[in-house]
Amino acid sequence: xxxxxxxxxxxxxxxxxxxxxxxxxxxxxxxxxxxxxxxxxxxxxxxxxxxxxxxxxxxxxxxxxxxxxxxxxxxxxxxxxxxxxxxxxxxxxxxxxxxxxxxxxxxxxxxxxxxxxxxxxx
Amino acid sequence: xxxxxxxxxxxxxxxxxxxxxxxxxxxxxxxxxxxxxxxxxxxxxxxxxxxxxxxxxxxxxxxxxxxxxxxxxxxxxxxxxxxxxxxxxxxxxxxxxxxxxxxxxxxxxxxxx
Lengths: 122, 113
Prior knowledge:
By secondary structure, chain A is mostly beta strands. Chain A is built from no helices and 11 strands. In chain A, strands 2, 4, 5, 6, 9, 10 and 11 form a 7-stranded mixed beta sheet that branches. Chain A has a 4-stranded antiparallel beta sheet with strand order 1-3-8-7, with no helix packed on it. Chain B is globular. At the A-B interface, strand 5 and strand 10 of A face strand 6, strand 7 and strand 11 of B.
């Protein structure tokens, strides 16, 4: 079964850091681009960041550029999001999502995890 | 960045009736080199992650009922639910993947009338 399981969320003070992880299983992880998408409570979806299958290409939303860093470890079938200088407006459920086609950057997201909640508050 | 808008914000449709959701992009998402529209539709039910319904504007994802269909090209797109079922109550999002900033529309909430 294809599965994505996020972890690492929690309550953190403004200005502090947090690292999210996403464990993938059931597919050849290093063939696919991966993404982080977030959803603030009661709000819509916001793409945060993405990384290509070989880490050769990354992208960030303007709202997180310079503060967040995406990475992956294909040997561990894992995706990460290092979040620094966190702000209250980063409070959201963070989803990990998989690109639908292998070796394709510009493609829809076909598999999503259940998400991990990040709350930034003093 | 490409801005995605959707209309209406919400709609209520009787069971068995048609539901139509519109999505508009601030610039074309049609790649002339392959004639594909880089546009997807997702369904999100309460407490669940989004589910991919449609990609390339009109290609139904495997396992998605054929009452869901997508149409449109360039900047204007439509998701149609031909005969609304109770399990279709959800928020529907369009997304462009034409550029690296993969923007989503604000969502359209579909309810039963």
